[in-house]
Amino acid sequence: MIEPPLILAIGDSLVAGYGLHASDSFPAQLQASLEHQYSGVSVINAGVTGDTTADVVRRLPRLLSSLDRRPKLAIVQVGPNDVLRQVQAARTRAQLEQIVLSLCNCGIPVLLTTVEPPALIRDRAAAYLGIHEELAAEHGATVWPFFPPGVLGHSDMVLADRVHPNAKAISAVVAAMRLIVERML
């Protein structure tokens, strides 16, 4: 019997579902969208609001050892909080590489998601641009934008904080990401 796919979604508030009902979070919506084609699919929500790459590095070993089977895919969304906290870009890169290598060494394919920095912090984010793409090329991971075109910068796609995506935005994220996720399963 073929086991239904297990997907690990790990990262920051975009994964955790900051400000959303659990059923509206990225992992929950992704799982619901895949359920018809992959009966019994499970998407683990390992997102923690505020997480930086260092936080994910710290908690990844315990998380992986707690799983009862190997995920078919890990979706990694982390990095914006490093930019906001002004973690050195080289340190962010090294920690993100550690995350990718930890997952790859366990035989878990990696989908690294990226977030286009808003104009307000584009200068601050310049040193971080391209890190995900470089690491993906070096280690055989796949890169995909977390937000599809038309989501960022639209007031009807964010919560009252004007930063975090609402359920409608996450639905658009899932719709845009589903094809690459299916290809990787």
Secondary-structure blueprint of this entry?
Elements: E1 6-11, H1 13-16, H2 26-34, E2 42-47, H3 53-66, E3 73-77, H4 80-84, H5 89-105, E4 110-114, H6 122-125, H7 131-139, E5 142-145, H8 167-184
Parallel strand pairs: 1-2, 1-3, 3-4, 4-5
Helix pairs in contact: 2-8, 3-5, 5-7
Describe the structure using short key phrases.
14% strand; single chain; 8 helices; globular; 185 residues; alpha/beta; 5 strands; 5-stranded parallel beta sheet; Rossmann fold
Notes on the structure:
The protein has helices spanning 13-16, 26-34, 53-66, 80-84, 89-105, 122-125, 131-139, 167-184; strands at residues 6-11, 42-47, 73-77, 110-114, 142-145. Strands 2-1-3-4-5 form a five-stranded parallel β-sheet, with helices on both faces. The chain has a single domain (6-184), classed as 3-Layer(aba) Sandwich (Rossmann fold), CATH 3.40.50.1110. It is α/β, with parallel strands linked by helices. The longest helix is centred in the last third of the chain and has 18 residues, at 167-184. It is globular, with a radius of gyration of 16 Å.
In CATH, the architecture is 3-Layer(aba) Sandwich
Order of strands across the widest beta sheet? 2-1-3-4-5
The total number of structural domains is 1
Low-confidence stretches: none
Task: Just give the CATH class.
Answer: Alpha Beta
Secondary structure tally: strands: 5
The CATH superfamily is identified as SGNH hydrolase
Give the radius of gyration.
Answer: 16 Å
- The ordered H/E elements are EHHEHEHHEHHEH
Helix count from the secondary structure assignment? 8
Helix content: 40-55%
Oligomer: single chain
Q: What is the SS-derived class?
A: alpha/beta
Write down the CATH topology.
Answer: Rossmann fold
Distance between the termini: 17 Å
Mean pLDDT: 96
Q: Which geometry do the CA atoms define?
A: globular
How does the major sheet shape up?
5 strands, parallel
Q: What is the strand content?
A: 5-15%
